[in-house]
User: Fold these one by one.
Assistant:
Number 1:
Amino acid sequence: MYGRLLVAGVRRQSSYPLATLAGLVANATFGLLKTGILFAAVGSAGGTLAGYDVGAMSAYVWLSQGLLGSVNLRGRSDMMLRVRSGDVAIDFLRPVDVQGAAIATDVGQGLFALLPRGLPSVLIGLLAVGMTMPTSLGPYVLGAFSVLVGITVSHAFVYLLAVTGFWLVETRGVTVLYMSVAGLFAGLYTPIWLFPDWLRAVAEATPFPSMMMYPVDVLTGRVTGGDAVGVVGVQLAWLAGVLLLGQVLTRAGRRTLEVQGG
Amino acid sequence: MADALARLAPYRAVLASRMRSQRSYRANFALDLVGAVLVGLMEFTEIWVLFHAVEGIGGFTFTQMLLVFGIADLAFSLADLVVGHCDALPTYVRAGTLDVFFLRPQPVLLQLVTSDISLRRLARATVGLAALAAGLVLNDIAWDVRSVSLLAIALGCGFVMFASLFVTAAGLQFFLVNGAEMTNAFVYGGRYAATQPASVWPRVVAVVFGFLFPMAFAAYLPVTALLEMPGAPWLPSWLGWCAPLAAAWSVTLALLCWRWGVRHYQGAGG
């Protein structure tokens, strides 16, 4: 059932090729800009910065740009519009779990985006700049799973923003708040390992690194072996927490739901 | 004079009503303001993190970067305040509401500009303003006619360049209704580029953001001229004085794209 919704999400995403190409252009632009400044930073640190050399930094830049179409760091979702318009009342009548259905569709879209947007972004980086990637199979297998969990954590979290609409009606503010904090702490702007200690501690206490930083770390082999499994464990714990909170909020929201305009 | 004021009256009435409507959901409006400041702060944090992880990047120290970030971000926020919502053009096109604009006896671009003004974007500008103020205090600047005029040129031209970027994007979006992200690449990519030292750019980037969308002229070059620093390869610091030329080029590009887009537009078939 949720598998079908996932597939529907994939199909929907594949019907807008221009949007996908546009996303790719944006990724390439930001990727090149980030490469420039981060390489210069690595250079002035004398070749390695917080464990990143030029090759590892490039891998970070292009993988994180590639994930951008799949991980939701913008905070907007269909669910948010449906709560606002009151369409969600119809969703409650359907014989599926509202939360499960919404997240499955979004994750499907996110997974599909890896093909036309994620892989080409990485490819552009590989060809234009070059990067260091692991040579063994392990990091890729665990990395793929970590990416899947990361994508799901982000959509599950964005679902939480959507359901605040049951109480707030206008949720733009929450979205903007999420967008600014998530971008920084998920490691989109710079790797969180470049932060000063106190800020890194703050970041690690949030679910945001689980969305992008950890998957990139696992996939690029920055963490390996037992540590990598531990990181994925942290991701799964956050996923469980966020899903549970979503379920609670959905039930509470359902009781307060007043559809405007009768 | 009175005649001109009378002609502006409808715009003023529209803008005032837009401002009132934003304040009506109070909790959200407060969050919106906080969020807008946060977005700016987070973008600043990126620079701060990088320049605290290492001593200097691209020949710039953190205090010197404050000037670049401050000028670029302030100019961008003000441009965003005035014309940023041109970004919403594809929404109007898809919904068919753009056609209404064509029926009214006012220029479409002016109507689009006055269709929305977001107070939260004013809050966003405070971040750039604070960075600029800090940069002006912390750097050793000789306060004479030369530095003041450079600063004024940079801010004015930066505003015009960013506003032009938004209009260029809107013009191209007539063709790219589902591809708004394509224009985001140079609008938001341009903002990001403008807050960087251009000396670190790879060559492709230097061509695109040095000349086609001349973002290096918005803050980096004027600051190198102001602090009498050497510029980047291809971009010597005396070019900082040429920001008005870059602004003129941006405006030309924007108006061409806008006219091209409007001519291409065939209506929503209503």
Number 2:
Amino acid sequence: MRWHKRGDTFAGYAFIAPWLAGFVVFTLGPMVVSFGASFSSWTMLSPPTWVGAENYQRMVSDDPLFTASLLNTAYYAAVSVPLGTVLALLLALLLHRRLPGMGMFRTVFFLPSITNLVAVSILWIWIFNPEYGLLNGALRLVGLGAPLWLQSETWAKPALILMSLWSVGGSMVIFLAALQGVPPELYEAAALDGAGPMHRFFAITIPMISPAIFFSVVVGLIGGFQVFTQAFVMTGTAQPGTEGGPNNATLFVVLYLYKKAFQEFKIGYASALAWVVFFLILVFTQLQRRFARKWVYYESGEQ
Amino acid sequence: MTHDGPRGHTFVHTALWTAVIYVLLSVLSVAFLAPFAWMLSVSVHDLPGVFAQPFRWVPDPVRWNNFAEVTTLFPFWRYALNTAVITGLTLAGTLLSCSLAAFGFARIRFRGRDTLFAVCLATMMLPGQVTMIPLYMLFSALGWVDTYLPLIVPAFFGSPFYIFLLRQFFLTIPKEYDEAAMLDGAGRLRIYWSIVLPLARPALATVALFTFIGTWNDFFGPLIYLNSPELATLTLGLNMLKAQIVGTGATQWHLLMAGSVLIMIPNVVAFLLAQKQFLKGIAIGGLRG
């Protein structure tokens, strides 16, 4: 190559050295330790002893809380991601036309997704208050029932899902950028061929922005599987250890992991949980990726 | 630009469609703004007013004093300073380490570069939970627990997403600049500092904003690493205040809301000032596919 020089290898490694060192010390090393720890019985007080796959076996056969947390997480991700994607797409489609005031509307829809999640969680505890909260006030106004939300086993998860819809701004921005990349000629040609708005939407818009939809769904699922802060701040009583209530209805996998690691100090078991989370995310991403090849349209030359 | 075709849509049709869009946007805006409005309203009530039925959106009198009062309920200014120190150092570390790595990946050809960059990208998707426990033990062994070091030091060792973002931007800066500078005898560091960094200001601003908002709002890191109350960040402090207030009879929601409002202000201001950079960064990240 034209600018390939002898000193380049040294210079290259010198520039990436901080990242490389960080990768080894803060990522690769901990991954190896974590993997080993997941096959051990290890508390903060006692040294690790090798127990083989016992942690994983216990998870599958003898830990109803783990099963519950997995089901809770699956419920949360399976409902919040599709709903959030549809809402984000709707917002992006509405904002896509170059009409006056669109920048202001975009700011309004995006703002919730950058605000402090603990502050937002505290706000929503009060919004979900069955008696005095904003939500039930509005529901009563239109004559609908007023659930107990966070205090109800049935409604606690829907409450958190509803709250998650408030922060779809990130996906909306990604969809907006994708919509702007669709060549207008396609719509003009389709209109000349007599295609109606619905037909154009499903035959042009959706296929053209499918990579953005795919990306947003995968990132949403990964985020959904890692939901923690809302559940930690909003559920249970003020006593430590009660998070994830009522009756473990909002005990999500990462919250369960946190409790095992930092409240019960079960390092080995918590490490095994972490690897299960990682594995699930990995499988999901790969399945989606394979599925995506069939229906996602990538313009040639792009990955 | 509308995508309505040249045929089949009269002026009236288009005007009607525009009206429908504005109505929908307005309804959705009310829904998105209502929680913020409610928070602001509750934050200037007195306690009986919070529980009054029906709720009055504009209380009389408006109690601005709640904002001053909440800063005495917990060491607000101390926590603000703590958060600012952590955020400032994290910002410096992230910008430096990520731009260095991005320069290496974007502008120097060396053996193993593409493999290492693929490794860097792969770690972008790695959930933090996998490394969290060993990292905690590492920092614990180093005696770093209950200090700011676990929150700050890793920032000086790069962050995959920001390295990726900066590398993409660096690739768009013509290589001829480097070659010309090299003919003049400039070294790599000089090219990095005097040519690439100044040209990459928009991308650096995007990274700075993401880092600022992410660090300012971080909850999990402070939660597991900081034990001493006087070391807490604003986010951690607000959660401690909530735990202290909730469950003690009539919860002082007006003060909790006032505290929440105060914590949100820096984010909102930073976002409004640099909205374009921010949205662009998200779009770049998303369009990678």
